[in-house]
Amino acid sequence: MLTRTTTRWRLAVLPLILALAWPAIAQKHRSRAAKEAASLPAVIWRDPGDVSKLNLYYGEGGRGDAPNAGEHFVFVKEDLEGTNPKFDVKDDKGRKWRVKVGQESRPETAATRLLWAAGYFVDEDYFVPELRVSELPKLRRGEAYVSSGGIVRGARLELRRKDIRKLGDWSWFKNSFEGTRELNGLRVMMCLMDNWDLKADNNSIYEEDGERRFVVTDLGASFGKTGNYFTRSKGVPRDYSRARFVEGISDGHVDLVMHSRPPFFMVFRPSLYRERARMENVGKDIPVVDARWIGHLLSGLSAEQVRDCFLAAGYDSAAAESYTQAVQKRIAELNRL
Q1: Residue 20 included in any domain
Q2: Three-state DSSP class for residue 332
Q3: pLDDT of residue 33
Q4: 183 half-sphere exposure, CB direction, 13 A CA radius
Q5: Which among 100, 103, 120, 105 has a CA at the least distance from the CA of 60?
Q6: CA-to-CA separations, 115 to 108, 152, 249, 259, 292, in angstroms, rounded
Q7: Which parts of the chain register pLDDT below 50?
Q8: pTM, 2 dp
Q9: What is the Cα–Cα distance from 240 to 44, expressed in whole angstroms?
Q10: Distance CA 64, CA 187 (A)
């Protein structure tokens, strides 16, 4: 027969036992989930169909998922990972959004639309010039983009969908698609958009609709120019329009311009130096036939569709026109290879 003292003792100890056992239980659950996910088909591209019919102003999520700048957003938490200011909010419908501010918000929004049109998986991103957020504390990063009354300026909103589960990251140099037309096309797209920040942790594997989808999930370092730490840029129309695209052709392969090598003094941080220097290989030795394939697909886009990518990202009409001409020029270069 249990005494009252014994019962109280067991109730007091039970939380401790659960706390000690929980890491092992959680690890076992993660291992089982990882094994189940590994059996799912791996995909990196799907046929976008007739690209001339795609709405590149709203992109992957369409008008239906687009946030309304006038609706009520509530602060959830700040995210201190990465180099750009980010925080999470919830809208009136209970949907969770990741807000990014700073120099990456515009180019990333535009890049998701062009990449989606080419048949690649992307996050649902939208650009909002001004966003009112209630219960917004003083941010540790990005406070310069906040005005009184919780007004956030120049916000990229990424929808955090509940039906998608992140399984991990993937590398450009070791993955399930090496040598395939689809991966080579994605390599071309990174160079076409001058996305120079090609770290593995900027790529994600998502479990969605019974598939393992390989996605480039951070595209903020696009539409400027590639280069070293001192010369590269993000989201600068003039830099992008003046940058070279095709470096050279030899033996049925093309090298596209992708500069990311760190300054010489970074050799004292050898792992970082090697990682940055290796990124340049993403644009090297691409089969011409694969580069032409993605160029032919993109040539189905009208100037208006390409322009919509940049208007949706908050660029003014002059900047959007500059980008449109530069993107179409690069597409034409691919088709002339």
Answers
A1: no
A2: helix
A3: 52
A4: 19
A5: 120
A6: 10, 27, 24, 20, 16
A7: 2, 26, 28-30
A8: 0.88
A9: 27
A10: 30
Q: Which domain holds residue 116?
A: 39-335
Q: Which amino acid is at 53?
A: K
Residue 304 token pair:
């208006």
- Region for 116 from its dihedrals, namely left if φ exceeds 0, alpha if ψ lies in -120 to 50, beta otherwise: alpha
Q: How far apart are CA 87 and CA 263, in angstroms?
A: 31
Sequential DSSP letters for 232-272: -BSS-HHHHHHS--EEEEETTEEEE----PPPGGGGGSHHH
Instruction: Select from 206, 215, 120 the least CA-distant residue to 168.
Output: 206
CA angle 174, 180, 185 (to 5 degrees): 100
What token pair was written down for 321?
């026109």
Counted domains in the chain: 1
* Cα distance between residue 75 and residue 79, in whole Å: 12
- Indicate whether 1 belongs to any domain: no
CA 78 to mean position of chain CA atoms: 19
26 domain residue, yes or no:
no
Structure tokens at 123: 């996050």
10 Å CB burial of residue 192 (0-12, 13-18, 19+) is: buried
Q: What are phi and psi of 325, to 5 degrees?
A: -65, -40
Tens-digit pLDDT profile for residues 77-108: 999 988 889 999 999 999 999 999 999 999 99
